[in-house]
Amino acid sequence: MPPADWTSDPMHVPALSFLAATQLTRLNPVDLIILLLYFGVVLFIGFYVKGSTNTSEEFFLAGREMTAWIAGLSFVSANLGSLELMGWAGAAYQYGILATHWYWIGAIPAMLFLGIVMMPFYYISKTHSVPGYLQLRFGEGARGLSAASFAFMTILMSGVNMYSMALVMKVVLGWDINFSIWVGAATVAIYVMLGGLRSAIINEVLQFVLIWAGAALIPILGLIEAGGWTNLKAQIARNIGSNDYTHLWSTLGHFKDNQMGINWVGIVFGLGAIISFGYWTTDFLVVQRVLSAHNLRAAKMAPVLGAAFKMAVPLIVIVPGLLALGVLRDPHTGALIHLVGENQIDATHPYSYNEVLPLMLIRYCGPGLLGLGITALVAGFMSGMAGNVSAFSTVWTYDIYGAYINKRASDKHYVLMGRWSTVIGMVISILTAYLVMKAASIMDYVQALFSFFIAPLFGTVILGMLWKRATNWGGFLGLLAGTASSVGMFIYTSTGSDAHKMQALSRIALSPDAQPMAENMFRALWSWLICVSVTVIVSLMTKPRPESELNGLVYGATVIPDDGATHLWQKPIFWAAVVFVVFVTLQFIFF
Amino acid sequence: MAEGTGRGEAFSIWFFVGIMTLAYGAVLLPYGAYEWFGGHERNTVLNNLHPTFWWGLLLFLFGGFYTIKYRPRPGDENKV
User: Fold this and answer.
1) CA B26, CA A33: separation in Å to the nearest integer?
2) In chain B, what are the domain boundaries?
3) High-pLDDT (> 70) share of chain A, %
4) CA gyration radius for chain B?
5) Which of A71, A120, A302, A532 is 20 to 30 A from A128, comparing alpha carbons?
6) B16: chain A residues, CB-CB within 8 Å
7) A6 inside domain
């Protein structure tokens, strides 16, 4: 069974509600030097780029001057937070290699689709945000709904991230929670307020490098200790008593055949086709990074490059979880250490799944390297908060304040509003963090709330881009119906007696053997279908917009400008094909 | 050109990447040498491979390469 704190949003990670009795390790002076160096550099960057963030385009979209490499690294890094690393390493320990689906089929096709199919419309429409695109395509109703929900959820997520960082620092290093919250929040607030998206992007690129520098030693040393991948598989099979933990697809025939309680339909259509596309193509937090690209070709290439890097991430996330299944032994007794769910921790099982990454870090990394690993975690948390806050400040300023409260202010005024909304957003995040501290279950609900909007929003955006006949009312009502149905299904499956919950789950996932993870997939699938159906029906019943108004917004009504690529190796479609071939090959290798 | 840092600036994003990893290498490399050659290795798994020293060396070389390649030079400032 998945742990009780497993989030309802499969694109996000388990809420880290563990509280170990004692801290796992402590930092040495050399570790502190490494950590302080990081804080010094990120603050310096904030002050350094402040001079280049005077206009709204510079503050909110980094001047639209980023190269494909920078935008691509930032795009993938915005999603690679520490919760992501720790949560999915724990999931790999719990479910085995199946967790890799969230990095491969749950990301790569969607990222390539964003780059090749959707990015031209986001880019040539010159929109500043995803709600901004909805306003151009479907009018104020769809924009207002998506902007309000995004701003609300994003700022709450920032608070959850902040609390999680403080909790991890307490568990791993014994740091005071208040200290971690205030230092983290103040640092992020300063560098985002000063440098806006530019500052956030630079730090995300740095964070990506730091995460690899801090975490790559675990799989390298782990695989050396295990004697290579083949030996690791044999050790896991011996320790678990089953070969299932190292197969990506062969156990997905039926819900009962795998430890995750899901089948291939849920993974392919729920995760791969809906949730993944919803997250990677419509969540403004990640799309904003690509909108900062300096030309159309860079905007198309950025997600393709991001996909290539994303494909490598399981090495530092999934492999450590699998390694723990094979080699994590008590140094004194030599007995295998069994990690358990949060609610199963006791004297004989003191560690949870979510602690697998810090445990493996401590196993291989002494002073210095430990500081590097901890710095990578801190960097991940801070860039996660910065990503949330910079996206919030953009949507708040452009799509709420500028759209409904003060439409005719000067550009300078909007930049000032962006800086202030960064600070206010951070204050709300801090309040959320303290709220979560009082009632940890809020964390699960916040993450679940996020999932309500992802799948329907993808339905609305994709119909808006690909179907000229979709009307304003169709888009708005489809989004509303999809979101409402997702909320309804969540309430249906998460309230009442246990027997009722089991029955509700079996109805939503179409099988009595389904586990909560399958509910996420099928709920996404249903809410997307409802959104699309309502959009189509209402659109056919209402008056279409003239084609001349859809230029630059919809396929068939738009002449997409040439991206300037003259050679094959300059074409984004070529590199997308290369990445896709590698992706398919990996599926067969680990089948 | 100073990629990513905006108008009038001379430091590229890649320069920051370089300087940061170079600094980490400069901290880890001597510390790793002190552990290895001074017999102060911590009791971690595979400490006989001296990961702090080798990882520090790798970061130092990586950071040094990026720092030199993307160091600010006259005329590199982005156009204002």
Assistant:
1) 11
2) 13-69
3) 95
4) 17
5) A532
6) 41, 45, 202, 206
7) no
**Of the candidates B16, B27, B2, the residue with the CA atom closest to the CA atom of residue A204:** B16
Whole-angstrom distance, CA of residue A468 vs CA of residue A463: 8
A299 Cβ contact partners less than 8 Å away, ≥ 6 residues apart: A68, A71, A115, A119, A120, A122, A123, A290, A291, A293
Q: How far apart are alpha carbons B17 and A215 in whole angstroms?
A: 17
In the structure encoding, which two tokens stand for residue B40, read together? 């102060």
- pLDDT tens, A375-400? 998 888 888 888 889 999 999 999 99
Q: Are A176 and A170 in contact (CB under 8 A)?
A: yes
- What is the C-alpha to C-alpha distance for residues B2 and B77, in angstroms, rounded to an integer? 6
Task: Report the alpha-carbon distance of residue A282 to residue A132 in Å, rounded.
Answer: 12
Q: Helix A356-364 to helix A140-173 angle, to the nearest 10 degrees? A: 40
> Does A289 touch chain B if contact means CB atoms closer than 8 Å?
no
- Give A458-487 pLDDT, tens digit per residue: 999 999 999 999 999 999 999 999 999 999
> Distance, in angstroms, between B75 CA and closest chain A CA?
18
Task: Tell me A469's DSSP state.
Answer: T
**Chain A residue closest to B80 (CA)?**
A52
* Domain CATH number, residue A53: 1.20.1730.10
- A557 lies in some domain: no
CA A151 and chain centroid, separation: 16
CA dihedral A526, A515, A489, A6 (to 10 degrees): -110
Query: Helix A516-541 vs helix A498-509: angle between axes, to the nearest 10 degrees?
Result: 60
Q: Evaluate whether residue A540 is within a structural domain.
A: no
- For residue range A36-65, list pLDDT tens digits in order: 999 999 999 999 988 888 889 889 988 888
**Is A211 an 8 Å CB contact of chain B?**
no
Provide the token pair at A290.
Answer: 């690509």
B27, B41, B78 ranked by CB distance to A33: nearest: B27
Cβ-in-10-Å burial (0-12, 13-18, 19+) of B30 comes to: middle
Tokens of A519: 């509910």
Nearest chain A residue to B47 by CA distance is A364
Whole-prediction pTM: 0.90
